Amino acid sequence: MSATLDSIRRHLVGLKMPRALETLDHVLRQAERGTLTTLEAIDALLGEELALREACRVKAALQMGRLLTVKTLAGFDFAFQPSLDRDRILALAQLDFIDRHEVLHLLGQPGCGKTHLATALGVEAVKAGRTVYFTTLADLIASLAKAEREGTLRERLRFLCRPQLLIVDEIGYLPVVPGGGNLFFQLVNARYEKGAMVLTSNRGFAEWGDVFGDTVVATALLDRLLHHAIVVQIEGASYRLRQHADLIPENVRRRPDTAPLQAIRKRGRPPKVRPTDTHPIN
Ligand code: ADP
Ligand code: MG
């Protein structure tokens, strides 16, 4: 009996099954007491090992994909964003848009949950075994510009074409450096109809000329990025500022397409309201 047990332990070490080895004694005791049948005991051991492996795989893939702040759909309070169709977001979490190489645009003012939702969809994709890479537009362009300077742009573009889902966060927050739009276009063009993307932005598509400092590039980008696209416009207010809504002037609070923070900074001057120029597709 004990010789067999030693042999099982050696097998588990040889097979690199640390979790099964750890739970072996406990499972055997349960089997001896009759709480588990032999089959259930084997199943429990293998199940424990598989769960550990899966957790390690997900952890490593999240790190590789730069999904460093884990956000979940379960942790998203849909009641706070009534304009958002919960079922539509949950349908997106089925990930068919990734397999169809579509582009999902999440639009809305700062704090309305764009990064949260983009990350949560990325986490779902990783759990389902898809490859994901998360970046901000500024970091993405900086990395492409660096690669271009170093003569490794082709390799960088190839690297960024590998993940099945590329998440590009924060389009429109920072002005794009000269030549940046062109580099982003090269990537978008390389991924076009080959890989899915999630893009988040606080600016409407009509403002992309300003964002990229180049209307020709912006038009070419939108041409690719609005073909096979899903547009989700979040109309609601900032979740970050929800407890301080009373500090935000009433005229700002009622306008979903103005950024409260900006308005607070520009005290005394009426906030600039831009027309909503996005049009939902699908
Ligand atoms: P955005 O990217 O649109 O500026 P974020 O997704 O970063 O906004 O959201 C800001 C913070 O508020 C994050 O910590 C996020 O997790 C949280 N948050 C935003 N919306 C919700 C929500 N509806 N339910 C729960 N947390 C939310
Ligand atoms: Mg964000």
Automatic annotation (TrEMBL):
Pfam families tied to this protein: IstB_IS21
AAA+ ATPase domain segment(s): 100-235
PANTHER family, per database record: ATP-BINDING PROTEIN RV3427C IN INSERTION SEQUENCE-RELATED (PTHR30050:SF4), CHROMOSOMAL REPLICATION INITIATOR PROTEIN DNAA (PTHR30050)
Keywords attached to this entry: ATP-binding, Nucleotide-binding
GO molecular function terms listed in the Swiss-Prot or TrEMBL record: ATP binding
Positions of the UniProt region annotated as Disordered: 258-282
This protein's record includes keyword Nucleotide-binding: yes
InterPro entries associated with the record: AAA+_ATPase, DNAC/IstB-like, IstB, IstB_ATP-bd, P-loop_NTPase
Family: Belongs to the IS21/IS1162 putative ATP-binding protein family.
Key word Lipoprotein present: no
Name assigned to this protein: DNA replication protein DnaC
Entry's Gene Ontology BP terms: DNA replication
